[in-house]
Amino acid sequence: MKLPGNYFVHQTITQYKCTRTVYMIAMIILCCSAMPSGSAHTFGNLPGPQNTGIFRAAVVKIDITPDQPKMLLGYNARQSTGVHDRIYHRIVVLNDGTTEFCLVSSDICVISPSEYDHLASLLYQQLGIAPENFWWTLTHTHSAPEVGVPGLPEVFMGERYKHPVDTAYTHFVEQKIIEGIKQARKQLVKAKLGVGWGHSNANINRRAIDVNGKAGLGMNPDGAVDKKIGLIRIDKEDGSPIALISNYAIHGTALGAPNLQISGDVPGIVADYVEEKLGVPMLFINGAAGNIAPIYSTYPNPGAARLSQFRVLLGDKILEANKSITATIDQVNIFASKLIIETPRKENLNWPSDLGNYSRSIGNGKNLVRLPVGFLKINHDIAIWSLPVELFCEISNEIRDKSPYPYTFYYGYTNGWLGYLPTAAEFKHGGYEVETVSPYTVEAEADVIEGVMNYLQGELRNKISADRVSVNRPSLIVPDETGVLELTAEKGKGIGTDIKYMPEWKAFGWFRNKDKIEWEIAPREEKEYSVILEWSVSDEDAGKSFILESKKDRIIGEVGKSGSWETFASEKIGTIKLKPGKQKIIFKPYKDFDPKQALLDLRKIIFVPVGQK
Fold first, then answer.
1. Is the pTM of this model over 0.70?
2. Which residues lie below 8 Å from residue 354, measured CB to CB, with a gap of 6+?
3. Distance, C-alpha 8 to centroid of its chain
């Protein structure tokens, strides 16, 4: 349990088998409380409650190369005949003791946002990971199998989707991500984080303009481009690397339509090369590559595409930039959130049935596209934003230049694909990206820049510290729009002589033998729910039994290890049936234990309808 202010410090020292660290912190708090006003600044380096968690991280790399021919996504409809290089999920899990964030980079071209939504729902149901804390980015190789339903591409290029959806491979891809996140959670270790910039000339603007001002796919050395490499490195406590996250804008199109071999294209080849040199996985995160191609593009085979040369053109530049990251820190705070930006949709454009949540009618035959923007803030100097689009680089460049954060990265092809989003100036040139595969109007650029910049400059700036302060106000809990019931500590009632609500952790602690928590809930209909517990406990205090009970059903289990009192974990603890109407949910110890010990610190319990998609 944490030390909230100087709550029961004497009691903590005398009644608990404190670790040496906790004992020392307790002594500091006692000393500070005894000092005259104004003297406490002597201990000015003592961490505040917003950064007392232990930062941990892990990375997992999983092969998703199929063992039989598959329909490839990119160019015209075509089926693979072999494998040039293998394709992977690369998964990083970050846990700052309060927030867990999962980042997946997959060697896939694009997916429909509905496919992301489905997998995010499975992760929420099985592992308690909130959708805003799970990003699925794609490297955008055009030589990898299709995954899931076509989504918006079927509206633009219906002729290439006459074959059935490959449900078996889609399920395989989904399950490998779930397995990978579970594996990464088990491998979390204390970690440090570093950040830096690099530069590479491996890309070029691909919007070639002819004498009539018409754009075509080609090379435009005078066009806008983004040659920056954005790096985040995760190290172990001893400074040895865990993983590298590299952000660079480049289409995965060195290989063209004649190529029928499965390949990660430039992103995959470069990731493999860097991994060979560093000995740890590298997540390749594509950027605003809507109008950016590799300098060698659309060749019929790997040799003609000079695919191996990108190891030098981009891989060596990543390695050089990595060497420039000389400072890493273990005090890491994470905040993830999502913003919806609405912008006009092209008139007379059909819309897929699986994407109903991504468009809104405003009457008179007019519609808006609802763009989900993801934000990830790391400490006070790193801001990452993402979109499920192929963004023109001028937009991300402008946002980076105006951002109040010294390290502002854009992660493209994230959580789905909603077409190309060009700048307003490019509409006059037309071309493939504007006329064929974009659902947007000239207003989209301004809408995105305004929405993202307002959030970066305003609401996001105070999120980490402000978000972690809360008040315990027991209140009725009703299902959200998806039927989920979230029983947070803020809305629960702690009953007992010792149990205390700790606002800086948004959790109940000091949870002794005779204490319990009650919530009042009001399900709308009778359902079976998967139940996810979010808790923390020291390894030596883990293993005690608990019971979660409703009026008609109950779950009995044991408190698993989370790593420390300062590190929260989440896990499915079972299923429970609830009837509709107001009722109480009670969480308490199942069996008596040493009264000098504690059960756990409990932040929330999540009820997710079984089978929810």
1. yes
2. 112, 114, 149, 151
3. 38
SS3 readout for 548-561: EECCCCEEEEECCC
Check if the beta carbon of residue 268 is closer than 8 Å to that of residue 87. Answer: yes
Q: Structure tokens of 156?
A: 């633009």
pLDDT at residue 469 above 80?
Answer: no
Alpha carbons 599 and 548: distance in angstroms, whole number = 13
Contact 286, 129 (CB under 8 A): no
Scan for tokens 């300062």, then name that residue.
566
Residue type, 402: K
C-alpha 381: how far from chain center: 18
pLDDT of residue 508: 95
pLDDT, tens digit, 9 for 90 and up, residues 523-553: 999 999 999 999 999 999 999 999 999 988 9
Q: Which helix (H) or strand (E) holds 486?
A: strand 485-488
Sequence-ordered list of residues with C-beta below 8 angstroms from that of 417, at least 6 positions apart, any chain: 110, 111, 112, 113, 151, 152, 153, 388, 389, 390
Angle of the 316-323 helix axis to the 265-278 helix axis, nearest 10 = 50
* Residues facing 567 on adjacent strands: 564
State the Cα–Cα distance between residues 7 and 532, nearest whole angstrom: 29
Question: What pLDDT sits at residue 260?
Answer: 98
- In 3-state terms the chain splits into helix, strand, coil percentages (rounded to 5) of 25, 35, 40
Tell me the sheet residues that pair with 92. Answer: 59, 103
266-321 pLDDT, tens per residue? Answer: 999 999 999 999 999 999 999 999 999 999 999 999 999 999 999 999 999 999 99
508 alpha carbon, distance to own chain's centre: 26
pLDDT of residue 113: 98
Alpha helices in 237-362 (DSSP H): 265-278, 310, 316-323
- Determine the Cα–Cα distance for residues 195 and 550; give it in Å rounded to an integer: 47
Summarize the confidence of residues 12-37 as an average pLDDT. 33
- For residues 426 and 434, the answer to whether their CB atoms sit within 8 Å is yes
In angstroms, the first-to-last Cα distance of the chain is 36
126, 595 Cβ separation under 8 angstroms: no
Cα separation, 357 vs 351, in Å, equals 11
Residue 1 — very low, low, confident or very high, per pLDDT cuts 50/70/90? low
State both tokens at 340.
């919806």
